[in-house]
Amino acid sequence: MEPLDEELEESALELPSEPMQLNMGPAHPAMHGTVRIVLELSGETITKADVQIGYLHRGFEKMCERGTWTQCFPYVDRLNYVSPMLNNVGFALAVEKMLGVTVPERCQYYRVALGELARICDHLVCNGAMAMELGAFTPFLYCARAREIIWDIFEEETGARVTHSFGRVGGMARPPTAMFKDMVRSGLPRLLFMVGETEKLLLKNRIFLDRLEGVGRVSKETAFALGWTGPTLRSTGAAYDVRRAHPYLVYDRMEFDVPVGSAGDNYDRFMCRQEEIRQSVRILEQVLDQMPDSGPVNIDDPRIVLPPKEEVYTTIEGTIQHFKIVMEGVKVPAGECYSYTEAGNGELGFYLVSDGSGTPYRVRIRPPCFAAVAGLQQLIEGAMIPDVIPTFGSMNMIGGECDH
Amino acid sequence: MSNPAPTAPPKMTIKLDGREIPFEKGDTIIRAAHKAGIDIPHYCWHPGLSVAANCRMCLVEVLPPPGRPAMQLDILRWDPAKKEYVPQKKPKLLPACQQECTPGMEILSESSAHVDEARGAVQELLLLNHPVDCPICDQAGECRLQDYWLEHSRKSKRMHEEPIHKPKGQVFGPTIVYDAERCIVCTRCVRVSAEIAKDPVLSIRERGNLGEVVVAPGRELDHDYTLMTEHVCPVGALTSADFRFKARVWFLRSARTICQGCATGCNAFLDYDPRNNTPYRHRPRDNQEVNKYWMCDEGMLSYKNATEKRQTSALVGGDDATLAEALSAAKEQLQGLRDDPERVAVILSAEHSVEDNFAMLTLARTYVGATDFFVSGKPLGRGDAILMAEDKIQIRAA
Q1: What is the C-alpha to C-alpha distance for residues B202 and B200, in angstroms, rounded to an integer?
Q2: For residue B336, which of A13, B110, B288, B374 sits 20 to 30 Å off, Cα-Cα?
């Protein structure tokens, strides 16, 4: 034991100080994505932030180069796994763009309907999780309950609740079930009720508002410079929505508003998503009115679409058609294309290169949340540690699509 | 005095789908196209065989000479609006495998709707009684019926009666198993036997739906080129007993090789599975100077020598050893022989390259001091006037 009454120079008592380093993630309960943020702190203020992604990198783009075009669908399911149907539709549209084919009208409506249901799921999860990370557990359960309504519909339609792998080049795996319209029609009011209940719990809560309003503020110019799209961009006041700016499928026949914010803070991002849920419901109601109840869902081209299973088992023509598509893949003409759709987080782009064979030569994704996460650093530098949670939450980083 | 340079005869050309392609006197349309790298769909035609013109897949539209009317046929065509057959005319199509080229001839192949329709119809008829065998058929993946259906027909079945049944799994001989239901009776195998193997052991029985290939009574398909009948079969009717059910062709990769069977040195492809590095078959590789399109059965089956009955690792006294151990054991045993060279004899091999043998010779002379040398080889075997050389040492190929 050293003696305590040691004679010391005055200067020796001033301990050398360095800024504190804090690792948030990659497995932090409040980070709803596998991501690490290395924070340099001065007290509780963040002086420097280093956002490190890549913990969910699976080499999706490279994996796509091994199988056929159709075999990419399970991979794209797992990009944004919160709204897999939007990825399915986006990828199918990209391949169809290269093939120069358009799916029948009934399929276009069906894709819009399933896509909007997925978008609602995406926003419910993002906002619900954000609230939960701020301590509001009940709204999260309300959102999860609302999502359950949609998942039941998906389960009925596709057979899977989460990763459906339901898209196909030239159509969908199956036509809509007879119950589809009724299920959506009866589900939407219940869903809106729960969305309303969620808002009642949150939007008059001082703690929740204090942690959202004015936090993580970003200007329209910065958002553009960062390549932001989707709710994060719209929260800054820029009304860019691919569905409106470059309509695809039957979005040009739909009446809906593009909600925008003004401050570009966490609150605006939260509210944009909430409003988009309501707009999606609006689109869904129109789709249900306009969608034909009969007619083909898949295009009529044996080079692209699989034959009915009973023909495969009983006729040689069906067997050959099945064999050629399964073993060799759909032959996509040589060339390249960029196709983009509005996914839950913004512009989901697929850049594809084909060498004319049944296998993609190159698949490249433009995940919307990649740009959003790239801007996270400048949003949280200068803020406090607790601000990281809602700000990161409102970026809605999905590791599956971000780490590509 | 200088002779004027001989003027080259003007190049004769035909026009196929608007593209000028040259031909030589006697060339048929399909051969001229084949030389120019254009594939006119066909089953029965083979560049190395005589013309049968029975599959009708290569039908093309030959435009009449300028100023002459086109040859036309009266037909009845179904009019879906009137719901009845209406009389119409369509051009008479000609088989590209049989029609000789004449200078300036204009031919429509891909660009003619009539040709397209005819090919679709031929394809539909060929599949009328075809069994649903793709999942168990060795040909699947390299089958003309599959390829051409997708390219030229793309129609689903219209005849839903029970198809005609014929014998399956008939053993034609030691190497070939025949499935009559898959057969399109193109007679390629019949012609290979008669024209290449000079043994007309195969023939066709019956006609139309009932047609099938049969072996001459009292005979087996057992000449030296039986596997060529399987090789030319455009569908899965003739299958090789050796390759049957062994591998699926889409898993195989091809490497260019030369057959090691005899001094002819036929050019071949070795098809192997990259997953287990196992060869599964030879396929002849076209070389007009050596083997044309063909290979003998012995050579076709010689791919097994790459893995079977082959020393692939070093031995010391009959036991497995590493290369380093074997070399040091050899060094030990060969040391000190210089004083008494008669105790050692060195065997060179006629199947090694000159370089290998020279290295061996140098080593034996300088290090071991050997004086006795022998050359091993293979005895002469059976040969024929087609491809098989009596000399079974491949390295002596010309």
Answers
A1: 6
A2: B374
Buried b (16+ CB within 10 A) or exposed e, A246-272: eebbbbeebebebbbbebbbbbbbbbb
pLDDT tens, position by position, B37-81? 999 999 999 999 999 999 999 999 999 988 998 889 999 999 999
Asked if B157 is an interface residue toward chain A (Cβ–Cβ < 8 A), one would say yes
User: How much is the pTM?
Assistant: 0.87
Q: Do A316 and B132 touch (CB under 8 A)?
A: yes
Edge-to-edge strand ranges of the sheet holding B94-95: B19-22, B13-16, B106-108, B59-62, B94-95
- Beta B72-79 vs B84-91: how paired, if at all? antiparallel
Judged by DSSP in three states, A96 sits in: helix
Q: What is the DSSP string of B192-204?
A: IIIIISS---EEE
Output DSSP code: residue A379: H
User: What are the structure tokens assigned to A219, written together?
Assistant: 């200007």
CB A257 within 8 A of CB A205: no
| Tally of residues, chain A | 404
Beta-carbon count within 10 A of A17 CB: 7
Pick the CATH number of A61-350 from 1.10.645.10, 3.30.465.10, 2.60.120.560, 3.60.110.10: 1.10.645.10
Q: Could you read off the pLDDT of A83-131 as tens digits, one per residue?
A: 999 999 999 999 999 999 999 999 999 999 999 999 999 999 999 999 9
* Residues A56, A34: Cα–Cα separation, whole Å: 7
For residue B234, whether the previous peptide bond is cis, meaning omega lies within 30 degrees of 0, is: no
With contacts defined as CB-CB under 8 Å, which chain B residues touch A324?
Answer: 146, 150
Residue A252: which residues within 8 A CB-CB, separation 6 or more? none
Task: Give how far A325 is from chain B: nearest CA, Å.
Answer: 10
Contact A62/B at CB under 8 A: no
Indicate the residue of A302, A313, A324 with minimum beta-carbon distance to B146: A324
Per-domain residue ranges of chain A: 61-350
Question: Would you list the domain boundaries of chain B?
Answer: 10-126
- Give whole-number Cα distances, A127 to A141, A144, B237, in Å: 11, 10, 63
Chain A CB contacts of B134 under 8 Å are: 316, 319-320, 323
**CATH class assigned to B10-126:** alpha beta
Q: Which range has the worst mean pLDDT, A284-293, B231-240, B302-311?
A: B302-311
Give SS3 for A319. Answer: helix
Q: Point out the residue among B131, B141, B156 whose CB comes nearest to the CB of A318.
A: B156
From A321's Cα to the closest Cα of chain B, the distance in A is 7
At B332 the three-state DSSP class reads: helix
Q: Is B22 helix (H, G, I), strand (E, B) or coil?
A: strand
Chain B residues with CB inside 8 Å of A321's CB?
Answer: 149-150, 154
Which residues numbered 259-298 in B keep a CB inside 8 Å of some CB on A?
none
Sheet holding A20-24, edge to edge: A20-24, A36-42, A45-52
Query: Taking Cα atoms as reference points, which of A176, A168, A126 lies closest to residue A147?
Result: A126
**Those residues with Cβ within 8 angstroms of residue B162's Cβ, 6 or more apart along the chain or in another chain:** none
> What six digits make up the tokens of B352?
């090694």
- Pairwise CA distance, residues A143 & A341, whole Å: 25
Q: In terms of DSSP bridges, do strands A167-168 and A171-172 run parallel, antiparallel, or are they unpaired?
A: antiparallel
d(CA A204, CA A83): 29
- The alpha-carbon radius of gyration of chain B (Å, integer) is 28
Q: Could you read off the pLDDT of A205-255 as tens digits, one per residue?
A: 999 999 999 999 999 999 999 999 999 999 999 999 999 999 999 999 999
